[in-house]
Design a protein that fits this description.
Blueprint (H helix, E strand, L loop, with lengths): L1 H26 L11 E5 L3 H18 L3 E5 L6 H9 L6 E6 L1 H7 L10 E10 L2 E5 L7 H7 L5 E5 L5 H13 L3 E5 L5 H6 L5 E4 L5 H5 L3 E6 L25 E8 L4 H15 L2 H10 L2 E6 H26 L1
Parallel strand pairs: 1-2, 1-3, 6-7, 6-8
Antiparallel strand pairs: 3-10, 4-10, 4-11, 5-8, 5-9
Helix pairs in contact: 2-9, 2-10, 4-11
Length: 322
């Protein structure tokens, strides 16, 4: 009887210990879901790129549950920022406000990294560069520009050799048969250089020129994208003027390759909500940019196609330069 009682006592003790263990395990806090801390967004360029990034970060923070912090890391046509993000870890807390510069920076020899070293999150917006001239030049079209350039070199301002605006400007001038010398300007300085007479033509995004156009000092004579820009809809595209160029700058978000899929998904969802917000749409409208959201998979396909196209264009530019 004592032995049987001992057995029951041992069994009871074991069952009690097991129940206690289960209870303790049940009390353990569940693993926290991403994101557990702020997300850092590297911004590669100033001007409109920086402005859009700041608005996007604010709107994403509202739905992500953590703050998205934009940090400026300009230089090397985007190479400085891409290199930082790529080396900062792929845990989902380091992302980059990227653009076609992922291709131009590599193709220009500024960095060994390519688009394959990053995972796309979402495309957010599209901006089409414009061709700007001084109002007192009398030039009102690309044909006027072509006629004025006969027998002389035009000074065309761009962001620097191999930059997207240089690619665009060169493509337009080559199609027009214009002999041009390309003059780099610092971030945000395109209108100043043009108004000061140091360049004849400037190639940049609409946001830098709109206030000067309204003041009557500058004139926009062409949009380089496939479509006219709503905010300056009286400005025809280069294609409409017989120039075979359709080039626009996309902007979006990416993270280092290997970033957890669940983090990418949450960032994509937050980016979509931000891009669709009235605040974000209003901000882009003022800058002459368009909201063009694309999810990660479609964005990926666009980047691959765009990289191939820019590779061909930049290869031609290097041939012509040598």
């Amino acid at each position: 009887m004592a032995d049987r009682l001992t057995i029951f006592t041992r069994r009871g003790l074991l069952l009690t210990c097991a129940a206690a263990a289960v209870a303790v395990m049940g009390m353990q806090p569940a693993r926290a879901e991403y994101p557990e801390k702020p997300v850092e967004m590297t911004v590669l360029f100033g001007s409109t790129a920086k402005t859009i990034a700041q608005v996007l970060a604010n709107e994403m923070s509202k739905s992500l549950g953590q703050t998205v912090v934009p940090v400026d890391r300009p230089g090397g046509g985007g190479a400085v920022g891409y290199t930082h993000v790529h080396g900062a870890g792929n845990d989902g807390y380091n992302i980059v406000w990227n653009s076609n510069s992922i291709s131009t920076a590599h193709l220009n020899g500024n960095m060994p990294l390519t688009y394959k070293d990053f995972v796309p999150i979402a495309r957010i917006s599209v901006e089409s560069p414009v061709i700007a001239v001084r109002s007192d030049s009398g030039w009102k079209s690309l044909d006027d520009l072509k006629k004025a350039a006969k027998g002389k070199k035009l000074k065309v301002g761009t962001s620097g050799f191999g930059s997207f605006t240089h690619v665009v400007g060169s493509a337009v001038m080559q199609d027009l048969g214009i002999d041009a010398v390309y003059v780099p300007y610092d971030a945000g300085k395109a209108p100043t250089e043009l108004l000061g007479g140091r360049i004849d033509v400037a190639v940049q995004f609409p946001g830098q020129f709109i206030s000067h156009v309204k003041a009557g000092d500058l004139r926009l004579i062409a949009v380089t994208g496939a479509d006219r820009v709503e905010q300056i809809k009286d400005v025809p595209t280069a294609k409409e003027q017989g120039v075979d160029v359709e080039l626009s700058m996309w902007r979006g978000l990416a993270a280092p390759a290997g970033t957890p899929p669940e983090a990418v998904k949450k960032l994509e969802a937050a980016a979509k909500k931000a891009a669709e917000s009235p605040e974000f749409k209003a901000a882009l409208e003022k800058l002459g940019a368009d909201v063009r959201f694309l999810p990660a998979d479609q964005f990926d396909a666009l980047i691959v196609k765009d990289d191939e196209r820019l590779g061909k264009i930049m290869s031609e530019l290097k041939k012509n330069k040598s």
